[in-house]
């Protein structure tokens, strides 16, 4: 057997059981990749299902993780052994179920009293009742876990226990997973790679011969990262890369490890974004420019988040009665405006005019041609790292036709006074996330700095391909329109999406709307890097 990155089990020569990873060598997707106190699994951020539940409901039995083969588990250093609490034994040794329960449950808590939880749905409890949470559908205990995710995975493998909640299944119960490759060397003519095992600390990394690593994607990433680093060491000048070196320099190996960790972090972030989105289009994440990872203080939302003290009251109590919404008494006509879309569901009104869509009280169905923005982004988009100092950007993965709805701009709704205070901080940081809702008045502002969706990452351009429109659906409060971005021309797949942060409507209305990102805040002028022929030089 050999260490596989495309699935498969087995044993062979060398150290550590034969690892098994995700199909096609994808890393960072399977449960259990976190370390230390990181707990990415489970529906609750603080309380999640312990491995002891599997121990109580399924029972032990069977050998350890490496039994039946000639390859023991990856080694653990003495420091790691001393760090483990009593009851956690080293690889290759047996751990009684009693010790497993002691590791997972706080002192004084009882154990499970039912064996039915293995076949019944997993339902988390509230933090206030985490010690004892029984329901009619499942009799399970939920406790704050005393051990790290890696430790629980190790204990399950030693006891031959399966626990899907922490990623221990039939496929990987008796095998280990290659997370990424860290280093390279040649010893007596044999090529070796330093392997980081998924679910194990870096102190347990082992050198494995190339013949045992049938993982083309991970090897490709390793070589690509090495060549990328070597090509940059002389300020971007091309550098001949030797294919046969005896060892990598520490700086090169360090870069490769950081790049592998970044790749895993971005993969987790991508999965998180796609779990939280409520629209059809997929969200991808890409960074081939630097080592920047996911933003640390950003939370994905799908609609406005009112700040404390701001009450958003939906004023809709009635809807249209028409079955064919282009009729004369549909919602836009009742508001005194034209229907915004044509029969092909493309925008037909000029910039500056509002969009009134059918609401939840209307009798028309979901296929109504006047329900566009409320369905969310229909296109697959990619958040990518720009190579000219503009940070993150957004590009489309599909062709977008002219006058098509692309995305909605959402964030935290704050007062104008609070926006002025935050604006001073953002100006000093060189960021622009404040969008004034000044269609009817200038009372509220949308702040997408910490809370937002994909639009948070859309960059400015003086020659944009997106146009801003005010939309009213379930809330007719003119102070709180929804902000929708529509394409101004055909956008090719792979092209970056942009809008003008100082975009002005082309029609004079009774309002003073400018449909832009806080144009009144001009304390610090920000240099524009859009690169357009008609670039104004500054964002404000």
TrEMBL record:
Pfam families in alphabetical order: Chromo (PF00385), Pre-SET (PF05033), SET (PF00856)
Post-SET domain boundaries: 524-540
Domain annotation Chromo: ranges: 176-234
The SET domain, residue ranges: 379-502
Amino acid composition bias (Gly residues), ranges on this chain: 1-15
Cytoplasm as UniProt keyword: no
Keywords tagged on the record: Cell cycle, Centromere, Chromatin regulator, Chromosome, Differentiation, Metal-binding, Methyltransferase, Nucleus, Repressor, S-adenosyl-L-methionine, Transcription, Transcription regulation, Transferase, Zinc
EC numbers on record: 2.1.1.355
GO annotations of cellular component type: chromosome, centromeric region; nucleus
SMART domains according to UniProt: CHROMO, PreSET, SET
Chain ranges passing through the membrane: none
Compartments where located: Chromosome, Centromere; Nucleus
Gene Ontology molecular function: histone H3K9 trimethyltransferase activity; zinc ion binding
Positions of region (Disordered): 1-44, 61-94
Main subcellular location of this protein, as a coarse class: nucleus
Record domain Pre-SET: where: 318-376
Low complexity bias (residue ranges): 82-93
Listed GO biological process terms: cell differentiation; methylation; negative regulation of DNA-templated transcription
Highest taxon of the lineage: Eukaryota
Keyword Transit peptide listed: no
Protein name: Histone-lysine N-methyltransferase SUV39H2
Species, as recorded: Dromaius novaehollandiae
Gene: SUV39H2
């Amino acid at each position: 057997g050999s260490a596989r990155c495309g699935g498969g089990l087995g044993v062979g020569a060398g150290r550590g059981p034969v690892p098994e990873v995700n199909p096609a060598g994808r890393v960072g997707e399977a449960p259990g990749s976190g370390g230390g106190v990181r707990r990415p699994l489970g529906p609750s951020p603080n309380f999640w299902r312990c491995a002891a539940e599997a121990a109580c409901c399924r029972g032990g039995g069977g050998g350890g993780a490496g039994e039946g083969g000639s390859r023991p588990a990856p080694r653990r250093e003495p420091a790691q052994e001393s760090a483990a609490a009593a009851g956690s034994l080293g690889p290759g040794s047996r751990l009684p179920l009693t010790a497993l329960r002691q590791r997972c449950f706080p002192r004084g808590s009882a154990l499970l009293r039912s064996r039915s939880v293995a076949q019944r749905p997993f339902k988390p409890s509230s933090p206030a009742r985490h010690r004892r949470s029984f329901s009619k559908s499942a009799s399970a205990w939920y406790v704050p876990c005393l051990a790290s995710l890696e430790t629980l995975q190790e204990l399950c493998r030693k006891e031959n226990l399966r626990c899907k909640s922490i990623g221990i299944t039939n496929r990987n119960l008796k095998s280990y997973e290659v997370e990424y490759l860290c280093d390279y060397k040649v010893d007596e003519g044999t090529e070796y790679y330093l392997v980081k095992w998924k679910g194990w600390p870096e102190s347990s990394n082992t050198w494995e011969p190339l013949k045992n690593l049938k993982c083309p994607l991970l090897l490709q990433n390793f070589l690509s990262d090495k060549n990328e680093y070597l090509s940059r060491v002389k300020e971007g000048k091309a550098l001949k890369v030797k294919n046969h070196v005896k060892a990598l320099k520490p700086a090169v190996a360090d870069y490769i490890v950081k790049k592998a960790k970044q790749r895993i972090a971005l993969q987790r972030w991508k999965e998180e974004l796609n779990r939280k989105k409520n629209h059809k289009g997929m969200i991808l994440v890409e960074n081939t420019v630097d080592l920047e990872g996911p933003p640390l203080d950003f939370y994905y939302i799908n609609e406005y988040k009112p700040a404390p003290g701001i009450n958003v009251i939906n004023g809709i109590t009635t809807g249209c009665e028409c079955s064919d919404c282009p009729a004369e008494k549909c919602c836009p006509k009742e508001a005194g405006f034209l229907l915004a879309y044509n029969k092909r569901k493309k925008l037909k009104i000029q910039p500056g005019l509002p969009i009134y869509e059918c609401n939840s009280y209307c009798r028309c169905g979901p296929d109504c041609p006047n329900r566009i923005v409320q369905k969310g982004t229909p296109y697959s988009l990619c958040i990518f790292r720009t190579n000219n100092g503009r940070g993150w950007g957004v590009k489309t993965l599909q062709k977008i036709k002219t006058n098509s709805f692309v995305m909605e701009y959402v964030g935290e709704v704050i007062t104008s006074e609070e926006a002025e205070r935050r604006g001073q901080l953002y100006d000093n940081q060189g960021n622009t996330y404040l969008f004034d809702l000044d269609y009817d008045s200038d009372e509220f502002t949308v702040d997408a700095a910490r809370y937002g969706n994909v639009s948070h990452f859309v960059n400015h351009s003086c020659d944009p391909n997106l146009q801003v429109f005010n939309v009213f659906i379930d809330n007719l409060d003119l102070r709180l329109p929804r902000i929708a971005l529509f394409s101004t021309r055909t956008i090719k797949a792979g092209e970056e999406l942009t809008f003008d942060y100082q975009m002005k409507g082309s029609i004079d209305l009774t309002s003073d709307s400018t449909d832009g990102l806080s144009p009144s805040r001009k304390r610090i002028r920000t240099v524009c890097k859009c690169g357009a022929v008609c670039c104004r030089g500054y964002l404000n």
